[in-house]
């Protein structure tokens, strides 16, 4: 069914009645008759500042908004047109569509069930490593273009089957107007990926992006584990990820301080150089932005590992870092019975009770036949003996 009609560059388009997704501030609608674009409409009047922001963005063409080749989507779902009402009122903007089944949210790679559903034949550790590389590459290119992601999380990045990533919520990006120098700040953030200064109301910066990137890379390389999960031993009540970030309490750096959640993957699955970067980000880098590894450092370390990945010979979808002498995922299966990457091995279904009874009856019948045959043979022998 059709919904609202809006105008893109003066041309009317009709939106579907139901949105593809919605949040507290906006909802994203498909366009009837055009599967290539979507329109993001704000729930409340966005105001002149947001309109000016988007008008300036339409005049810009950052590198990350353009694909590097025909097989790769752009790293940014950049605005393509303003969406207006019949009286010319600003309602939102249009952008290229990135959605299922070709693109899925990054958070979908954090659980085995979702990985097997979305990428059944390729979502192994090597694939996750490649996604992490693409994420670092996207972040580095945005910083090169003087753009700050700001609201950087696993929900506003999508991934395709080749591991390429695209950032969706470009209307929240922080940037300086290349002409006037005016700053358009990012007012949004996601607490589980926000550094302490960002949680305290500070501005989005490259350093706050670097903190979020470190968390996302760590989650990818541990199949979804958050580096600030768990409850500190000295916590009076249940601690949240936000609390642990503010307290600089990460089991990756100080495991003795935390009751680590059951099933957490040991940080040693990360190759040494990557683990060093993670410990810098989640240790001194929590409260010292300058100590956080930049996107380029992650990019170099991830690039080095991509060609060194080892392949397990015993189980499918088991690949791991070159620093390990044996498959950590097989070891985990042996200890816990849980395979991080493969689905459960089907258990042979036992025969139904009726079938078991039939099988037993058949065995008794066969035994009886053998016994009768033996009796007949014995009788024949006795008769033959007496006949002599």
Automatic annotation (TrEMBL):
Instruction: Give all residue intervals belonging to the Protein kinase domain.
Output: 1-309
What keywords is this UniProt entry annotated with?
Membrane, Transmembrane, Transmembrane helix
Give the transmembrane region(s).
363-384
Instruction: Cite the GO molecular-function annotations of the record.
Output: ATP binding; protein kinase activity
Claim: Transport is one of the keywords in the record: no
Query: What Gene3D superfamilies does this protein map onto?
Result: Transferase(Phosphotransferase) domain 1
Q: Which domain of life is it from?
A: Bacteria
Q: Does the keyword Ribosomal protein apply?
A: no
Q: Which PROSITE patterns match?
A: PROTEIN_KINASE_DOM
Q: What is this protein called?
A: Protein kinase domain-containing protein
* Originating species: Streptomyces albiflavescens
């Amino acid at each position: 069914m059709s919904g609202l009609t809006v105008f893109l560059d003066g041309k009317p388009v009709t939106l579907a009645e139901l949105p593809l997704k919605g949040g507290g501030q906006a909802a994203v609608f498909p366009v009837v008759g055009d599967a290539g674009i979507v329109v993001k409409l704000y729930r409340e009047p966005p105001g002149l500042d947001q309109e000016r922001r988007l008008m300036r963005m339409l005049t810009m063409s950052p590198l990350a908004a353009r694909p590097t080749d025909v097989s790769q989507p752009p790293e940014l779902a950049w605005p393509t047109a303003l969406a207006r009402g019949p009286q010319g009122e600003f309602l939102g903007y249009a952008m290229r569509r990135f959605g299922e089944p070709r693109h899925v949210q990054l958070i979908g790679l954090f659980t085995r069930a979702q990985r097997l559903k979305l990428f059944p034949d390729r979502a192994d550790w090597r694939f996750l490593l490649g996604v992490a590389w693409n994420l670092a590459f996207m972040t580095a290119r945005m910083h090169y273009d003087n753009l700050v992601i700001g609201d950087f999380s696993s929900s506003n990045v999508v991934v395709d089957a080749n591991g390429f990533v695209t950032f969706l919520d470009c209307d929240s990006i922080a940037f300086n107007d290349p002409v006037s120098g005016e700053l358009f700040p990012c007012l949004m953030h996601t607490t589980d990926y926000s550094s302490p200064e960002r949680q305290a109301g500070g501005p989005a910066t490259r350093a706050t992006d670097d903190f979020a990137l470190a968390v996302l890379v760590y989650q990818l390389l541990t199949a979804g584990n958050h580096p600030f999960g768990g409850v500190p031993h000295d916590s009076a009540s249940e601690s949240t990820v936000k609390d642990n970030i503010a307290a600089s309490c990460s089991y990756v750096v100080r495991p003795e301080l935390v009751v680590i959640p059951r099933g957490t993957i040991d940080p040693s699955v990360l190759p040494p150089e990557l683990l060093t970067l993670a410990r810098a980000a989640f240790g001194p880098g929590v409260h010292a932005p300058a100590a956080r590894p930049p996107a380029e450092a992650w990019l170099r370390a991830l690039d080095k590992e991509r060609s060194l990945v080892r392949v397990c010979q015993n189980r499918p979808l088991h690949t791991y870092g070159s620093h390990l002498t044996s498959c950590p995922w097989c070891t985990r299966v042996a200890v816990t019975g849980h395979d991080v990457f493969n689905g459960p091995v089907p258990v042979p279904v036992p025969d139904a009770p009726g079938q078991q009874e039939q099988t037993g009856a058949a065995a008794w019948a066969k035994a009886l036949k053998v016994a009768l045959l033996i009796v007949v043979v014995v009788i024949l022998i006795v008769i033959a003996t007496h006949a002599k």
